[in-house]
Each structure stands twice: as structure tokens, then as C-alpha cells.
């Protein structure tokens, strides 16, 4: 029995030793690279230290660090300033930007090779891809890629504004911006817009509603001054999830100071430039049944000839047709959104001008059909007027025109105007 026990113990020791040897063989086999005698991952087998291996690997990697904006996968990216590529410890050698359809976007690497940006504005609601390559001082290349989506039309707003960049306008011309989506954060949007004058006049914005914002000084603009509007709305959240996309500067000049006053009672219009009367013109204003608005009105549009249909402004007969439909009204200039014009009149007798008010609310001046005679009163006034000039109507039996009916915010007191500012 004792002999059997000793033999069994030796057997267990032998198995344990065999297992240890077998385990060593298995581990060694796992590290072997086929028939090669050394381990590929073991620096000692190649005669190199781990530090030497790491250093050699690092020497094969470019030190250039490329950064692409927006980040990969970004949504609602700006169409103006978000897209750019920069590099440190190297210089850019190639940057390509394409839309999802493969259309290339023009861009330019800076002279120092440290940055790149598109040459123009991107499209809204579009997926773009950027691939960039740079080299470090050793000539080793680095690569970076990014894909992002610009803000969609549904998630962005724009402001349509007047006057146009580079235009010359009259002293009454406000800056008027109409947004294509309702603005709920008026403070944020107005804070992104600045309007200033070379005259130093204080300029204040006024919200008429959620989509219209006008700017003006307390009194008419100074003649000869330059007005600058800066739109810094790119990325401004105007409503929940709706962002601005405009980034631009607009300048316009103020011409001579022309203010014309229509006296409905005397049926005359006095035209003043820089405070001096240059002409007095007989007129025919709105009839007692269709009076002309009182107040300060700004010429917003000019048409050498245009159609005027009473149906478009509520003057209809029993059949629903316009009480008048004149397809060639000469020398017409708009004074209100609701249809008030100062224009030439060829269909009325010459005797009405200066003596009888006969119109449906407009101010009529003597003219000829076809607008071809420069010696007519209406032609003279048309030729001597520009968009932004002021026409004041007084002594009419009607009310004062609403400040938002056209570009007519001058009919609001300065304190009331400032009260409508969000900043």
C-alpha cells in the first residue's frame, strides 16, 4: 500500500512537470512567427530596444496636425464662415471640397500654407466633404477628412432689405428688413445688425411685427452722408432651431434733401431742395369720397408707366371688377403699400389740376399718354425725384397714414419708435 501511494505521488508530480513544460511550449508557439526563430514584437530579438522601435515609428509619421471645421458629422453648419482648414507644424499641399453630388467647391490655400477656405458662399441644406493633405518639414504627409451638412432652408432665415447696396436715395429712406420667417428672439437678431451714418446721427431699430425691422434716425438723414448696414446674422438663432445665414455689409448714399408738400386744400405741391423752393405744381388729390392719407410718405418705387387696377386696392363695382383699370399710368411713384401713388394723369381735364380733387386717393399731376413729353408737370417731378424722397400730404380729411404702410415710419414719434427696439 505504501509503495502504491508513493508511486501515485510521483505520477502527480510528473504530470505537473509535463504540464509546465507543455504550457511553456504553447506560449512559445503562440509568440513564434512561423519558422522564424525570433519574435517580431520582441525588440530583443532584433537587437533594438523598445524605445528605439517607438522612435523609428514616430519618425515615419508626419508632425503636421490638420484641423477641419466644421467637425465631422456636423449639422446646421453656416454657409458663410464655418468651412475652413488649418494646419500646425506643416503646410497644406492640397484641399478638395465637394458636394455630395461630386460638384467641386472652389477654394484657396493661403500664401503661408497654413489655412484654406472656400472662395464663395455655400448652398443651404447641402452635404459637403473636405479632404486635406499637409506636409511637415521632413516632407511626410498627413491626411484629414470631414463631412458636414449646411443649415437647411427650413432651419434658416434671411432678411430681404432695402435700399440696395451702392444706391443713392433720398433723405427719408429707412433701412427696412423683412425676414422670411417669424423672429421670436428679436434681441438676438437686432443685436446682429448695426446701422450707422457718417453724419453721426443716432440710428435706432423698430420692430413693426415679428418679420419686419426698420432703422432710422430721429430726423431725416443728413444730405450727402453715407449709411452703412452690417448684417452679422450668420449662426444667430432667430427662432427655435432657425438660424441666420447672412454675413454682409451694405452701404448707400444720401442725395440732396428733397421734401415735397402736397396741400390738399389748396391743391398744390411745393417742392423744396435743401430747404429752398424749386417748383410749385398744381395737383388733384383724392375726392371727398376717396380721400388721400395725411402724413409723411416716402417714395419706395418708380415706374415710367404702370397698370393701376382698382380691384387690387379694394375699389370694385357691383360686378366685382375694378372701378378703374388704367394700363399705362405715366410717371408713377409709390407712396404706400396699400396703393397710394403720386403719378401723371392724362385722362382728366387740364382744368382739374389746382382746382378739383378727383382721384381715388392718389395725387395726380398733369401728363400725357405714353409719358413721352418731358415738359409735363408729372414728367418734371418724376425726373427730379429719387427713391427715398419725402412727400408730405396735409389738410386732407383722411387720417394719418400708418407708419408700416410703406416706408413711412416718420409718422411715429421718436419716443414711440425707440420703444419698439429690442436692444
UniProtKB/TrEMBL annotation:
It comes from the Bacteria. It holds the Pfam family Big_10. The active site is at residues 343, 362. CDD domains: LDT_IgD_like_2, YkuD_like. The keyword Acyltransferase applies. Residues 258-394 form the L,D-TPase catalytic domain. Residues 34-77 are annotated as: Disordered. Keywords: Acyltransferase, Cell shape, Cell wall biogenesis/degradation, Peptidoglycan synthesis, Transferase. The keyword S-adenosyl-L-methionine does not apply. Residues 42-52, 59-77 have a biased composition (Polar residues). Pathway: Cell wall biogenesis; peptidoglycan biosynthesis. InterPro entries: Big_10, LD-transpeptidase, LD_TPept_cat_dom, Transpep_catalytic_dom. PANTHER family: L,D-TRANSPEPTIDASE, L,D-TRANSPEPTIDASE YCIB-RELATED. This is Ig-like domain-containing protein. It comes from Streptomyces roseicoloratus. The lineage of its organism: Bacteria, Bacillati, Actinomycetota, Actinomycetes, Kitasatosporales.
